[in-house]
Every structure is written in structure tokens, then in C-alpha cells.
Automatic annotation (TrEMBL):
It comes from the Bacteria. Its main location: membrane. It is found in: Cell membrane. The chain crosses the membrane at residues 6-29, 41-67, 73-94, 106-129, 135-155. It comes from Pontibacillus marinus BH030004 = DSM 16465. Probably functions as a manganese efflux pump. This is Putative manganese efflux pump MntP. It is a multi-pass membrane protein. HAMAP family: MntP_pump (MF_01521). The keyword Metal-binding does not apply. InterPro entries: Mntp/YtaF, Put_MntP. The lineage of its organism: Bacteria, Bacillati, Bacillota, Bacilli, Bacillales. GO terms for molecular function: manganese ion transmembrane transporter activity. The gene is mntP.
Length: 185
């Protein structure tokens, strides 16, 4: 039987995964404006999902190392880091972008996946400081970012970028709330 603590952690990590995937969703909305075949959309989502597993895993490993050496200060540092990331993500939603400048093929796909998963490294760093379940975190981050990327790309074919700013605002707000939760608990 699942414990209440596990269910709570699952819900928290799912919300964080959604918040981190909002970047991929919003950029996918813009990228979905260019003509892409379904096979290309599938591969873009998979690559973005892989980067949302690799980057937080590296952050979690570094976070475990730092927390073992810094103790409770690391938890506050992780909360502050999440708060800063959330504010940055929220504020970046007000910038006027013309959409993605790279094509999602070859090195352009790698650059795209890296750019939308950089914040997951920092979140992984702060999560590593709080001894989170690594496998659960990586599965949720990878799955949600893949699904949100696909959704953004497919919806981008239908919608002309209206949701992009609002999805980044929502994602930033969620990261801020979890940063505050780490700091205040």
C-alpha cells in the first residue's frame, strides 16, 4: 500500500515536472508553427525528454554531494535556487520572442533540447540537496517534458503562440511556490 508521504512526493514531483516541461511546451508552440512531420515531432519530444532526465540526474548527483558537505544550509540554498529559477522563468514570459531561431534537426535539436532542459539541472541540484527519490524524479521529469513537448508542437500547428507566455508564467509560479516551501519548512 502506498504511504501518504509517497503520494505527496509523487504529486509534488509531478507538479515540478509539469512546471519544468512548460518551457518545452511554450517553445514547442512556437516551433510548431514551422512545418513538421509527425515523425519529427515524435523524435523532438523523445530527445527533449531524454535531456530532462540527463540534466536533473547530473544536478541530483551534485546536490547529494553538496548536501552531505553543507547539511541543512543546502536545503535553504536549494529553495532559494528554485525561487530564483521560478522568478526568472516568470519574468522571461514578458520578453517578446519571435519564436525559435533554430531548426529541430541534428545539432539544432540538441541545442533546442539543451536550452529547454537547463533549468531542470538547477532543479535537480536543489532536489539532490533534499534527498528526493531519484528514479521517480527522473521518470516524471522525462515523461512530462516529452508529453508537453509533443503537446506544444501539435498545438503550435493550431494556435498562434497565445498560450506561450501564460504557460511560462504558470511554470515559474509553480517553481516559486516549491522554492518557498523548501525555505519555510
Amino acid at each position: 500500500m502506498l504511504s501518504v508521504a509517497y503520494i505527496g512526493e509523487f504529486i509534488t514531483l509531478s507538479l515540478m515536472a509539469i512546471a519544468l516541461g512548460m518551457d518545452a511546451f511554450s517553445v514547442g508552440l512556437g516551433m510548431g508553427m514551422i512545418p513538421l512531420r509527425l515523425r519529427r515531432i515524435f523524435s523532438i519530444g523523445v530527445v527533449v525528454g531524454l535531456f530532462h532526465v540527463i540534466m536533473p540526474f547530473a544536478g541530483i548527483i551534485l546536490g547529494h554531494f553538496l548536501s552531505s558537505h553543507l547539511g541543512s544550509i543546502a536545503t535553504y540554498a536549494g529553495g532559494i535556487l528554485l525561487l530564483i529559477l521560478g522568478v526568472q522563468m516568470f519574468l522571461s514570459s514578458f520578453k517578446d520572442d519571435a519564436g525559435p531561431m533554430i531548426k529541430p534537426i541534428g545539432m539544432g535539436l540538441i541545442v533546442f533540447a539543451l536550452s529547454v532542459s537547463l533549468d531542470s539541472f538547477s532543479v535537480g541540484l536543489s532536489l539532490g540537496m533534499s534527498n528526493v527519490r531519484t528514479a521517480l524524479t527522473l521518470i516524471l521529469f522525462g515523461a512530462f517534458s516529452t508529453i508537453l513537448t509533443w503537446g506544444g508542437l501539435l498545438l503550435g500547428k493550431k494556435v498562434r503562440g497565445v498560450l506561450g507566455k501564460y504557460s511560462e508564467m504558470l511554470g515559474g509560479s509553480i517553481l516559486c511556490s516549491f522554492g518557498l516551501q523548501l525555505i519555510l519548512n
